[in-house]
Inverse folding.
C-alpha cells in the first residue's frame, strides 16, 4: 500500500477543518472501499482522517415520524435495526443483498454512499479512465462493458454506481445531511450522486471539506408492498447486473403510490418520477407494469456487451413490481426468483 | 508495501515517512503493544508483528474471507482495516478459539465433517462461522450459505462446511 499520514479527528469540527485545508486528505470510516483502492494505487491520499470516533453512530426517530441514521452506523446494524426491519424492510433487504457479512460489519452508512465504481478500467491503472485520470479517455466504451451503464451515461464515462443500499434510499426519498466549512446543509438523495457528463471524476455533489453526518428517512416506509430484486452473475456476494427497489401503496388492486429505482444500470441509483406517475391510480397488472418499465427505459442504450441489460431491466422491473403488489418480497437467502 | 511515498506519488514532494504509532490491541485475551506505520493492516500486524500466522492472507482485497477475525466479537476482514484504527479493541483469531487445550466446537465439527481439503481458507471459515453463530440470524442451511458467502473455498468443501456449522448451531 502507499504511504500516508494518519490522524484521528476528535470532533466533527476538527474533521471538517482538516479536510477543508488539505485537498490530499481523505476521511476513513469502514475503509472497505478506500483501502482496497489504495492497495490498487487508484486512490492516493497523503493523509487519512480517521472519523470512526465521531459521535455519528446512532439511529434516532425524527419528530415527523422518520428515522435519522448516523453516518457511522455499520451496514449490518442498520439492516438488523428493529425499526428498519419493521418500517423500512426494503432498505434492510437491499443492504443484506450487498457485499458479505464481514464487509457489512465494517462498512458505514456514509461510506456506502461514497463507494466508487467497480468498473474494471477504473481499477486498472495501466488503461485510460476519465474517472481516474480526467481527460485520458474511457476504455470501457469500446472495451468489455458487460457490467456498464445503459442509462444516463456520457461519451466520457459509462461506469455504474455499485451500491444496493443507495438504490433503496433513492426509492424511499431519503435526505443526506452534511456539514462543511460553511455550515450544515441537506441534499435530496437523488441529487447527491451525479451523472458522469464531462466530469466523471466527480461521483457526487459534496464540496471540499464536507462530511456526511446522517441519512434521514421520511415517515413512509412502504412496509406492506415492497421488494428488492437483485440479479447478478453468482447468487451471493456479487455486484448487480440489474437491481430493482420497488415500493407500492395499494388500495385493493389499485396503486395509489409507486416508487421504483434501479441499481447497476447508471452512474447513480436511477429513479424516474414520470415512470412512477404512470402507475398512480392504475390497477396492479402486468400490462401497466410493462408500460412503466418502457417509460423508465425509453432512453436506454447499450454499448455492446451490456445490451442484454435493457430487456433484463424491463423484465426485472415488471417482476419486482409484481412481487411488491403481491406482498411477496424476494427473500435474500432464497435464490429462486419468484 | 515496499514502495516509498515518492515512488507511489511521483509528483508529491519528498517527505520522510510518518513516525511509527503506538498501537495497543487485546489479542486473544492478551494485551499487546506494537509500534506500527499507519499503513499496516490488522492482518499484517497479526501475521508479521505478532507471529499469529493462523489468520491467512488470500486476496488482500476483502473478497475471499481467509483473513476473517473477530473484533469485539464481530467478524471482519482483517486485510481491509488499519491496525491503528482498531486501537484498544479485542481481537480474536483462530489461535484464540481453543480453550484450556480443548478445541472450539467449530474446530471439532470441521474435523468430524472433513470440512476442508487444503485448509488455507479454514481459519477464516471457522472465525466467520463463530461470528455467524453469535449473530444468531441464520436458522436454515440456505441462510448459513448466504451469510457465509464472504468466505471462499476453492477446494469446494462447502457442503461439509455448512454441515459442520449446522451441527454446532443445533447444539448451541
Amino acid at each position: 500500500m502507499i504511504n500516508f499520514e494518519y490522524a484521528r479527528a476528535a470532533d466533527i469540527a476538527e474533521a471538517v477543518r482538516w479536510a477543508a485545508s488539505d485537498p490530499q486528505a481523505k476521511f476513513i470510516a469502514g475503509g472497505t472501499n478506500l483501502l482496497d483502492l489504495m492497495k490498487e494505487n487508484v486512490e492516493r491520499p497523503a493523509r487519512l482522517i480517521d472519523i470512526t470516533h465521531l459521535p455519528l453512530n446512532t439511529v434516532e426517530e425524527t419528530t415527523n415520524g422518520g428515522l435519522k441514521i448516523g453516518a457511522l452506523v455499520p451496514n449490518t446494524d442498520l439492516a438488523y435495526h428493529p425499526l428498519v426491519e419493521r418500517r423500512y424492510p426494503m432498505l434492510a433487504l437491499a443492504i443484506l443483498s450487498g457485499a458479505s457479512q464481514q464487509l457489512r460489519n465494517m462498512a458505514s452508512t456514509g461510506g456506502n454512499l461514497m463507494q466508487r465504481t467497480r468498473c474494471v478500467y477504473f481499477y486498472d491503472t495501466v488503461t485510460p479512465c476519465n474517472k481516474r485520470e480526467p481527460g485520458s479517455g474511457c476504455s470501457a466504451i469500446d472495451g468489455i462493458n458487460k457490467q456498464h451503464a445503459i442509462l444516463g451515461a456520457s461519451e466520457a464515462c459509462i461506469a455504474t454506481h455499485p451500491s444496493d443500499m443507495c438504490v433503496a434510499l433513492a426509492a424511499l426519498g431519503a435526505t443526506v445531511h452534511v456539514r462543511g466549512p460553511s455550515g450544515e446543509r441537506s441534499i435530496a438523495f437523488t441529487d447527491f450522486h451525479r451523472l458522469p457528463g464531462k466530469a466523471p471524476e466527480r461521483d457526487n455533489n459534496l464540496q471540499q471539506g464536507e462530511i456526511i453526518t446522517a441519512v434521514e428517512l421520511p415517515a413512509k416506509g412502504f412496509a406492506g408492498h415492497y421488494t428488492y430484486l437483485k440479479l447478478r452473475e453468482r447468487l451471493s456476494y456479487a455486484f448487480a447486473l440489474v437491481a430493482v427497489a420497488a415500493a407500492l401503496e395499494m388500495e385493493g388492486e389499485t396503486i395509489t403510490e409507486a416508487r421504483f429505482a434501479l441499481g447497476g444500470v447508471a452512474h447513480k441509483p436511477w429513479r424516474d418520477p414520470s415512470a412512477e406517475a404512470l402507475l398512480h391510480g392504475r390497477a396492479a397488472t402486468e400490462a401497466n407494469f410493462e408500460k412503466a418499465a418502457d417509460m423508465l427505459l425509453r432512453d436506454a442504450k447499450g454499448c455492446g456487451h451490456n445490451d442484454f441489460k435493457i430487456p433484463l431491466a424491463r423484465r426485472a422491473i415488471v417482476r419486482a413490481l409484481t412481487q411488491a403488489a403481491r406482498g411477496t418480497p424476494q427473500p435474500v437467502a432464497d435464490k429462486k426468483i419468484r | 508495501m515496499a514502495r516509498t511515498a515518492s515512488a507511489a506519488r511521483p509528483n508529491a514532494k519528498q517527505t520522510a515517512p510518518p513516525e511509527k504509532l503506538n498501537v495497543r490491541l487485546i489479542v486473544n485475551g492478551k494485551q499487546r503493544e506494537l509500534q506500527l506505520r499507519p499503513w499496516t493492516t490488522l492482518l499484517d500486524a497479526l501475521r508479521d508483528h505478532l507471529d499469529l500466522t493462523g489468520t491467512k492472507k488470500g486476496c488482500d482485497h476483502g473478497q475471499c474471507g481467509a483473513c476473517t477475525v473477530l473484533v469485539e466479537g464481530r467478524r471482519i476482514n482483517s486485510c481491509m482495516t488499519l491496525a491503528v484504527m482498531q486501537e484498544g479493541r479485542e481481537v480474536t483469531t483462530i489461535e484464540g478459539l481453543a480453550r484450556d487445550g480443548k478445541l472450539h466446537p467449530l474446530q471439532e465439527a470441521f474435523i468430524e465433517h472433513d470440512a476442508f481439503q487444503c485448509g488455507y481458507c479454514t481459519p477464516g471459515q471457522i472465525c466467520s462461522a463463530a461470528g455467524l453463530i453469535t449473530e444468531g440470524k441464520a436458522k436454515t442451511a440456505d441462510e448459513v450459505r448466504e451469510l457465509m458467502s464472504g468466505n471462499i473455498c476453492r477446494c469446494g468443501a462447502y457442503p461439509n462446511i455448512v454441515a459442520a456449522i449446522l451441527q454446532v448451531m443445533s447444539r448451541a
Summary: The longest strand of chain A covers residues 242-251.
